[in-house]
Please model this.
Amino acid sequence: METTTSKPKILIVDDTPDNVKVLLNILREYGFEVWIARNGQQALKRVDSAHPDLILLDIMMPDLDGFEVCQRLKSQTATQSIPIIFMTALSETLDKVKGFALGAADYITKPIQHEEVLARVNMHLQLRWQQQHIEQQNHFLQESVAQLEKRNQELDAFARTVAHDLKNPLSTLVSLSEVLMGECAGNAKALERLQMMAYSSRKMFNIINALLMLAGVSCQQKVEIQQLNMGHIVKQVIQQRLVTMIDSYRAKIILANQWPLVWGEAIWVEEIWVNYLSNALKYGGSPPVIELGVIALPNGQACFWVRDNGEGLSEEAQSQVFIPFRRLHTGREEGHGLGLSIVQQMIEKLKGEVGIESVPKQGSLFYFTLPLVDTGQ
Model:
């Protein structure tokens, strides 16, 4: 790429010696490197050898006129970005329109004016340098993005390998702890320690799963969406994924009567409901009373929500709930602070939004939106 510290090269294409002489004196006086072509064919050869930064091109020439030369240059990848300024005594609008349609950058009218030539040449050289700089930066950015994508793929593969290697011994540790607890039923101290071991192992197992889920969502560029029966997903989460937890908290779950069809990714949406509902169970009232609902929005999306009867959150806390590794509750329940950040990333990739509405001492409402399926009704 040429820079402002190099000597700009300008090609003059004109079959009139007097015009060439005037331009040559003007441009050389101001430090430009000037090349000359006397006709269209010679101009095409000069462009290949000189690689000019700008071309001053006469329109009225024998053999190939300026329009034909411009058309040929603009049709080739190697020369199409070179700015071309037509020189003409013609004043007809149609000629100017034709020149611009072929890709000309500007016009200089004859007789040639010293100030006009310098002003237009300098302006278009500056524009060319800026364009080249932007192209170079775009190239660097594309290379950087490609390198980052490759690195992300490598890190994702590494993380999955490590996580797999960790999950197997952790699963064994949990199983052995449960077996030993059965064998040590008469030893209260040993039983307590084994319970702590099993609890810590399960917690580590959950953290690994959450980290894998977060990495998978972050790295996934394209999401395959399908029509989702939200009623079926909610029922599956409550009756299969969270049934034990719901029973242990003696929670009351209130469901919407009807659920719309939406666009989404079934596994992700199931995880979203698990996160929202498990949080409502852990941080709701005693016992938790949890309401699930949905409303249709004017923008063609459905807003799904989970309302609890817990202590609620301050405005400051609400602003941080979707930040990774940020734990807002330090009381009866522990967590790793990844669930809601994963929810946010999932919903954003599904073209929706997440949010919270909460008032201290009055509970919280967590919501997410997804595109509605147009049923034509």
